[in-house]
Write a structure and sequence with these properties.
Elements (H helix, E strand, L loop, with lengths): L4 H28 L3 H13 L2 H9 L7 H17 L11 H26 L6 H30 L7 H27 L14 H12 L14
Helix pairs in contact: 1-2, 1-4, 2-4, 4-5, 5-6, 5-7, 6-7
């Protein structure tokens, strides 16, 4: 049984709502333990995960399934790791690696969406170039992230890194997440009808259905740019 894209989007929104509730719980716990720095970080994250929904509303588009929820999950894992001290808990020895895997996937998909917006404005790249760029950019951002963590440990006496083995494990997890992002992006490519550009992935569901119907009838569609939201 084929699941409709409309239903998948509703699931995506439900997951975001669940993470908003989880973030609220984190905020309350941060206040309870007196960690006001992370309390404000939680509040900022609650706003950030709503940004993709605002973008959809303003531009009258629909982001590919999974983008909104994986962003929420990535932020939650990193913030919860600090608030709940799961980063340093022996109960979750692989927590940091899991968080880096999910963040690699999330940022990789954000980069993919960036290429979709470029396509909508007439700046188009080969699909192979996009996939390679996602992987290379993720390697670059992953390196910056680790530099930030190491700098925090050195200058602010935090404990985000536990030696060389931890550094290698996190980089490996981040790389696997990048590969997952490339794979998911390739699967998105497969869902685009012949003759359509990447912007098809941002179209509202009614527009996609019309395009698919025309495609079945053998007629070609014209390329469009992002609506102005008016």
């Amino acid at each position: 049984m084929k699941v409709s894209r409309s239903l998948l989007n509703k699931i995506d929104l439900l997951i975001v709502f669940i993470f908003e509730l989880l973030f609220l719980g984190l905020a309350l716990w941060a206040v309870e333990i007196g960690d006001m720095g992370r309390f404000f970080t939680v509040l900022a994250s609650m706003v950030i995960i709503l940004v993709p929904l605002a973008v959809e509303k303003v531009l009258k588009i629909v982001l590919p399934f999974g983008v909104k929820s994986i962003i929420s999950m990535s932020l939650f894992l990193h913030i919860a790791g600090g608030v709940m001290r799961w980063y340093w808990s022996p109960t979750f020895p692989l927590y940091n690696q899991v968080a880096h895997f999910v963040s690699g996937l999330a940022v990789g998909l954000i980069i993919f969406v960036f290429f979709i917006f470029l396509d909508a404005y007439g700046i188009r790249f080969k699909r192979s170039t996009i996939l390679i760029s996602i992987f290379l950019l993720m390697a670059f951002f992953g390196g910056l992230w680790k530099i930030g963590e190491v700098s925090s440990d050195v200058f602010y006496h935090t404990y985000y890194n536990d030696g060389l083995s931890n550094l290698i494990a996190c980089d490996f997890s981040h790389t696997i997440g990048s590969i997952a992002a490339v794979t998911v992006s390739w699967l998105y490519f497969l869902s685009i009808p012949e003759g359509e550009g990447l912007y098809y992935l941002l179209r509202p569901f009614k527009e996609r259905k019309k395009i698919l119907d025309r495609s079945k009838n053998g007629s070609k569609t014209q390329s469009h740019t992002i609506p102005d939201g008016k």
